[in-house]
Amino acid sequence: MSIDAKEYQDLARAAERAVQFAQKTGASAADALVESINEFRADVHAGRLETLKQADRRGLGLRAIVDHRVAIVYTSDFREASLKDLAARAVVLARQSTPDEFADLPAGPLAQTHAEGPLALYDEKVIGLTAAQKIDMALEMEKIALGYDKRIARTDGCTVQTTEGSSHLASSHGGVLSYRGTGMGLFVNPLADDAGGRQQSGSYGSFARSLAAVETPEQVAKEAGRRAVSRIGARSVPTQNVPVILHPDIAGAWLGSFFDAFSGDNIFKNTSYLADRLGAAIASPLVTVIDDGTMPGGVATAPFDGDGLATQRNVLLDQGVCKMFVYDAYWARKAKAKSTGNAVRGYTYVPGIGNRNLYIANGTTPPEEIRKGVDKGFYMVDQGAFGYNETTGAYSYQAAGFWIEGGEIAHPVQEITVASTTLDMLKNVVKVGNDLRFNGTVNSPTLLISEMTISGAGPAGP
What is this structure's pTM? Predict the structure, then answer.
């Protein structure tokens, strides 16, 4: 069910009233976030609908500040009497908490933020899809994946999901900010039969704000099928140091891990390996990293952040040079810096630092050309057990992919570990692909790292 205009206004009004009640009860400052989410999810298996979920969730989180003492309370009951009781409890809890001289709201009324429309956050076509249409999409996707190759006998997950939501932030300094957004995702994981009873996974999904931006069931299914079949016959390789090509999925996962090194709280606490690197060249000149909360249609785009400040386009690395760190209002105040619009927040917790649409800027080299330039190396397309150290940047993952000989794919690879450090990887980027596309919140083009350590079966290679 779509959120109508009256409901939208009522939710904003609830946030405003909660703040007013907190002030009347004794809060020196307060803000309230209301979130409303309508979710749909259809999972199919073996040609039949397996689970169907349709749910409406909404909640209000009130942050009360009394003499730099903070408390947050939340509820799903928006009746006036309940909001009064919530505000009273928030003030009592705040008075009992430990004071923090930096605990406060951003100064002044809520800032003028980006217009919702130009950010392309909401798509009526997503909302217009019926439940039957979405179920049919899931069934079609599974059917195409199973028909991609006779060695694909089943799937382990096939899902179509949609969301519609709105956020409303009110502040005691004045103002209420609101916006709404939609999202759609398709996912399938076909399993291809391999020797010895093993199966190879080919999971793939597409996620976007609009129906036009998300891939079709056919595109998702065929890409997932291709991935599963391509890994049949995978084997290990000897331990050695070789160039490694990072598939966009893997490069994006790595970027998502090392984003925390740019987080202002870690910089302030000196727990980031970039704490003393501002202004320094820490990466190849080919590497530019951007975090953009203003990208039209971005999955993580928003007109304002969790503090009510306008989101920004932040260039973290510019041609290899560390240009900035990211802050929310609290850590900016503590570090005597400026907020970068990176406060993320849900109604059940206070703001913290997080990324928006995070990506490595597109390069100029086609992925095929990158591969053909590698005489002997590894093309990493999947990773297993977690192996990233947030303090040091050490990188070590179980990996799967393809062995390259003479610029061509020789055979699929699994049961190896790929290791290095983030700073070494950044410095050793020698090629950046021209295949950047946005599918989710963290994205990257193909990257070629000149050398990483492959730990596999058997003795080290020459």
Answer: 0.95
